[in-house]
Amino acid sequence: RLFAAVTVTTGQAAPSQVSGVMKEKVLQRSVELSWQEPEHPNGVITEYEIKYYEKDQRERTYSTVKTRATSASVNNLKPGTVYVFQIRAFTAAGYGNYSPR
What we know:
Layout: E1 19-26, E2 31-36, E3 47-54, E4 63-67, E5 71-74, E6 83-91, E7 94-95
Antiparallel strand pairs: 1-2, 2-5, 3-4, 3-6, 6-7
GO molecular function: ATP binding; transmembrane-ephrin receptor activity
Keywords: ATP-binding, Membrane, Nucleotide-binding, Phosphoprotein, Receptor, Transmembrane, Transmembrane helix
Protein name: Fibronectin type-III domain-containing protein
């Protein structure tokens, strides 16, 4: 019998949620965050997006920071303010869901 070798690459899908979000360092106007890659990347992760907002604003007004690494600094925060941070990963197929609040 003769066999032919065929190499196939399946399409990418949106990744699962990132996990293990940690605050590494908190200063008066900035915070350093880190997290773990999604358990199921479902492709090549090209970027992470951090969404953050003041807790009492309840997502009415939010900002985002993008990075390729599994850690980032978020700057220009207001001193003495409680913020909520959520992170999601991106592949060629789109964004996964945000990490839990």
